[in-house]
């Protein structure tokens, strides 16, 4: 499930604000510097981060399931547009998408939702937006579980997903279920007097020595890349 995995690894112990800043920095570098050497370095770095966090790479593979087809999708698309250079640029796009997904999932695996919420508020993200993002992250396992239930139900009815076809029998029930849950959550919050424009969130997380060291290294990272 795409949710926080409690462990005592060095990555888990890093402050949520530092992890969020590094995630945004990594994504910025990946977007600006889409070259093969940079992507190879970041791929090795991503692998090292997963090893350090004690989270196997099979975890995101299981969690996304057939969604990984979107990682390989840029290759045939680029080859259709330009057969001569399509394979090269398609591979770059695929590796970029792979790193983007793996780094984002690692942030979710190693940081509890409450810390993510406090980090977003500390970094001056509007409280209502921070609340919406964290609620979305919290509901990811629920959506995954519901998708598995729908898949099993449709398989019992004899549905088989054909290659390269839209899984409409899966998408429609999932959307219906998600919208229903969202409506129930909205009613529940409203009945409790929830005001999205008047949210007060206390930031209780504290930086440690390692966090300060990582913050000092962040400008060095940008100076090396740019």
Which sequence of SSEs, written as H and E, runs from N to C? HHHHHHHHHHH
Name the shape in a single word: globular
User: Could you give the distance between the termini?
Assistant: 36 Å
The SS-based structural class is mainly alpha
How would you classify the quaternary structure?
single chain
Average of the residue pLDDT scores: 84
Number of strands: 0
Strand content: under 5%
Radius of gyration over alpha carbons?
A: 20 Å
Number of domains: 1
Unreliable runs: none
Separate helix tally: 11
Helix content: over 70%
Tell me the major beta sheet.
none
Report on the structure:
The chain has 226 residues and is mainly alpha-helical. The protein has one domain (10-225). 72% of the residues lie in helices and 0% in strands. The chain contains eleven helices and no strands. It has helices at 10-13, 16-32, 36-52, 58-64, 69-72, 74-81, 86-109, 113-122, 127-156, 168-191, 209-225. Helix 2 (16-32) packs parallel to helix 11 (209-225), helix 8 runs antiparallel to helix 9 (127-156) and helix 9 (127-156) packs across helix 10. It is globular. The two termini are 36 Å apart. The model has no long low-confidence stretch (mean pLDDT 84).
